[in-house]
Amino acid sequence: MKRKRILLVDDNVSQLDLIQILFENDGFQVDQAINGLLAISELEKNKDHPDLIVMDLMMPKLSGTETVKRLRTLGVKCPIIAFSAMDEEEIHQEAISAGCNSVLVKPCKPDILLSEVRKLLVAVELN
Questions:
Q1: Phi and psi for 89 in degrees, rounded to 5?
Q2: pLDDT per residue over 59-71, tens digit each?
Q3: What is the 3-state secondary structure (H, E, C) of 48-84?
Q4: Angle between the 13-25 and 110-126 helix axes, to the nearest 10 degrees?
Q5: Strand ordering across the sheet containing 80-84
């Protein structure tokens, strides 16, 4: 069985590395992008899209919400988890409206993040 691939998009490199270790220890293949523009560029070049994306919402150059809108326009259909330190309902609603499937607030317990990832991947397999 092919390992599920996750793309992490966050401008905080130490955050990226910690989450990558968490996911790799759980058997996932992980790619990173340090901003939304790099994520878009990578997905435009590589039509083999990830199985799931974890997207920080507050990034320089291009916000996570704007990145998600562009990814959806490009035809990226995989689940996207918005991952943000901002715990405000308006920001969560913007993320969902942009095309995110769920929103998690940083800091987040590792088991909660993994549970959300698994839940969304199972939902894709069932559809």
A1: -55, -40
A2: 988 999 999 999 9
A3: CCCCEEEEECCCCCCCHHHHHHHHHHCCCCCCEEEEE
A4: 60
A5: 29-33, 5-9, 52-56, 80-84, 102-105
Q: Is-contact 16 54, C-beta < 8 A?
A: no
- Answer yes or no: pTM beyond 0.85: yes
Specify which residues 83 forms β-bridges with.
56, 104
Our measurement of the distance from residue 27's CA atom to the centroid of its chain's CA atoms, rounded to an integer in Å, reads 17
Residue from 15, 75, 16 nearest 40 by CA: 75
Q: Who contacts 42 (Cβ-Cβ below 8 Å, separation ≥6)?
A: 7, 31, 33
CB within 8 Å of 18: residues ≥ 6 apart: none
